[in-house]
Amino acid sequence: MSLINPADTLERQNEKLLQIAQSLMRRVEQKNEQSGLAYQQFERAALLETQVRERTRDLELTLDLLQDSNARLEVANTETETARANLTEAIETINEGFALFDTNDRLVLSNSRFCRDFLDIEERLVAGLPFHDYVSLISGSRFLALPDGTTAPGWATQRMQRHGDEHVVFNVQLLWDRWLQVSEHRTTRGGTVILQTDVTDIIRMERQERDKMRDQQAKMLQATLDHLNQGVCIFDHNQTLVGWNKKMDGMFAPTRRRAAIGMEFATLLDRLRDDLQFHDGFDAEHLSKWADHSIRRRPMAFEVSRSDGQVFNVFAQEMPDGGFVISFTDVTAEREAARALYEMNEFLERRVKDRTQELGVALAEAERANASKSRFVAAASHDLLQPLSAAKLFMSSLPDTVDNPDALHIIAKTETALQSAEQIIEALLDISKLDAGKAVFKEQTFGLSKIFDPLRDELSPLAAAKGIQLRIVDSNLTVKSDPGYLRRIVQNLVSNAIRYTTHGRVLLGVRRCGTHLKIETWDTGRGIAESQQRTIFEEFQRLDVNTSEAGLGLGLAIVERACKGLGHELSLWSEPDVGSCFSVTVPIDGSTRKTVSAGATDAPANPTDLTGLLLMLVENDPQLAKAMSMMIERMGASVIHAYSAEEALSLLHEIELIPDAMLLDYHLGSGQTGTRFYEEVSKIHPHVPTAIVSANRSRELKDTCKRLSLRLIEKPINHEHLRGFLDEIPKARYSQPQR
Question: Which residues form a coiled coil (predicted)?
Answer without folding.
Answer: 7-34
